[in-house]
């Protein structure tokens, strides 16, 4: 018997994800929601869902739903992930899961309650690649810079907390070692308070030395780099599609939903002292 699947955001990105990964073959397309009831109704009619809701909260309260795809915007995504997990739903979401310091306490609560096994993080950016490619090296550099003509597309995003999942995965692998931050330089947008430039060195007890340079292309950063790189290109093809199927079939899977927590908490603690 197929499980019932629901979606919080009634948008093209969500339905394309479902169709691209053939989730309609594994689950019943049961319900969708939107804060605009008319939009939710049209989405249901266009894509064959059984019912629709005019609020995210009402959808989460539906006891017939087992799986929820949550691709809501970063600022509100975790709020509804938290509510749904507390209702024993299984959540499929994308990076980043958490977006501010206030969400860390609630995230820790979910960990303490053992609910992380009900959270699946889709890997559309190859989170493990940077770690796998560098794990036999002692000195490692993570360089992510964008050209100035790309800045307008990035100005609303935090280059550290939103755009570096592979960096966070790398740091999470060394969380058993005490990190020492050196040569810390940071610039934030005066209006959004989001990080636009960061440079530092992290010494993991001399076992691994990590240099980080992040630049979103803002001309005010006064940074120039000849080398252009972007490691966080989002692909339509999931790296962990097989694990997604395992998750839906309630079988053991490689759970990547927890690696963001430690690096996020670590940088928040460092930033408070800057």
Largest sheet geometry? 6 strands, parallel
Query: And the CATH topology of the largest domain?
Result: Rossmann fold
Instruction: Find the structural class using helix and strand composition.
Output: alpha/beta
Number of strands: 10
Count of discrete structural domains: 2
User: What spatial order of strands do you see in the largest sheet?
Assistant: 3-2-1-4-5-6
Low-confidence stretches: none
Shape type: globular
**Secondary structure tally, helices:** 11
Mean pLDDT: 92
Helix content: 25-40%
Short description:
With 274 residues, this protein is of the alpha/beta class. The protein contains 11 helices and 10 strands.
Structural write-up:
It is globular, with a radius of gyration of 20 Å. A six-stranded parallel β-sheet has the order 3-2-1-4-5-6, sandwiched between helices. The chain is of the alpha/beta class and 274 residues long. The protein is built from eleven helices and ten strands. Helix 5 (74-86) packs parallel to helix 6 and helix 9 (165-172) packs across helix 11 (261-272).
Write the layout of secondary structure elements.
Blueprint: E1 3-7, H1 12-20, H2 23-26, E2 27-33, H3 37-47, E3 51-53, H4 56-61, E4 67-70, H5 74-86, E5 90-93, H6 103-112, E6 119-121, H7 129-134, E7 139-145, H8 151-154, H9 165-172, E8 179-188, E9 195-204, E10 208-215, H10 241-248, H11 261-272
Parallel strand pairs: 1-2, 1-4, 2-3, 4-5, 5-6, 7-10
Antiparallel strand pairs: 8-9, 9-10
Helix pairs in contact: 5-6, 9-11
């Amino acid at each position: 018997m197929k499980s019932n699947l629901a979606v919080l955001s009634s948008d093209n990105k969500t339905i394309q994800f479902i169709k691209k990964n053939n989730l309609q073959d594994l689950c019943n397309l049961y319900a969708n929601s939107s804060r605009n009831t008319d939009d939710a109704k049209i989405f249901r009619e266009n894509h064959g869902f059984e019912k629709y809701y005019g609020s995210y909260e009402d959808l989460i309260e539906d006891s017939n739903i087992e799986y929820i795809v949550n691709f809501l915007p970063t600022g509100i995504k975790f709020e509804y992930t938290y509510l749904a997990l507390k209702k024993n739903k299984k959540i499929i979401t994308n990076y980043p899961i958490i977006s501010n310091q206030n969400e860390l306490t609630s995230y820790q609560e979910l960990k303490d309650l053992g609910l992380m096994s009900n959270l699946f993080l889709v890997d559309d950016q190859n989170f493990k690649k940077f770690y796998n490619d560098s794990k036999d090296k002692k000195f490692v550099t993570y360089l992510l810079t964008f050209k100035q003509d790309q800045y307008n597309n990035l100005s609303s995003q935090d280059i550290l907390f939103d755009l570096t999942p592979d960096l966070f995965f790398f740091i999470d692998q060394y969380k058993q070692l005490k990190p020492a931050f050196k040569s810390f330089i940071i610039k934030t947008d005066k209006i959004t308070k989001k990080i636009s430039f960061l440079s530092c060195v992290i010494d993991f007890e001399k076992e691994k030395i990590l240099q980080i340079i992040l630049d979103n292309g803002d001309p005010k950063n006064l940074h120039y780099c000849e080398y252009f790189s972007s490691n966080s290109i989002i692909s339509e093809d999931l790296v962990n599609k097989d694990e997604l199927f395992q998750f839906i079939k309630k079988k053991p899977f490689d759970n990547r939903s927890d690696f963001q927590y430690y690096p996020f908490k670590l940088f928040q603690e460092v930033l408070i002292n800057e």
